[in-house]
């Protein structure tokens, strides 16, 4: 995992926190403790890192799978 993955996860988690905060203030009109919002944000951050790790592990499998070779010319016999 490179540093871009961590930055990407941080941006996604930050956007999640911002959207949840705006939803809490303007749509639901109820205050939730900041501790709960931060816990959810950390879970989103870890989920993005976990998903990136899984995709990174599956990339070599995609490269080894290739289409079977098929003869498209007339037979030689």
Distance from first to last alpha carbon:
53 Å
Largest sheet: none
Helix content: over 70%
The low-confidence runs, each spanning 5 or more residues with pLDDT under 50, are: none
Rg over alpha carbons: 23 Å
Q: Would you count the extended β strands for me? A: 0
- Arithmetic mean pLDDT: 89
Summarize the helix and strand pattern as letters.
HH
What's the number of helices?
2
Assembly type: single chain
> Percent of residues in beta strands?
under 5%
Silhouette: elongated
Which class best fits the helix and strand makeup? mainly alpha
Keywords: Membrane, Transmembrane, Transmembrane helix
List keywords for this structure.
mainly alpha, 77 residues, 2 helices, elongated
Question: Mind explaining what this structure looks like?
Answer:
The chain crosses the membrane at residues 6-24, 36-55. Keywords: Membrane, Transmembrane, Transmembrane helix. The structure is a single chain. The chain is mainly alpha-helical and 77 residues long. The protein has a domain at 3-53. It is 74% helix and 0% strand. It has helices spanning 3-28, 34-64. α1 (3-28) packs across α2.
């Amino acid at each position: 995992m490179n540093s871009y993955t961590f930055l990407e996860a941080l941006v996604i988690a930050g956007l999640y926190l911002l959207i949840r905060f705006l939803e809490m203030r303007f749509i639901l009109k109820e205050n939730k403790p900041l501790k709960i919002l931060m816990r959810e944000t950390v879970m989103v951050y870890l989920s993005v890192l976990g998903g990136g790790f899984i995709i990174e592990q599956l990339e070599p499998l995609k490269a080894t799978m290739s289409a079977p070779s098929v003869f498209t010319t007339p037979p030689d016999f």
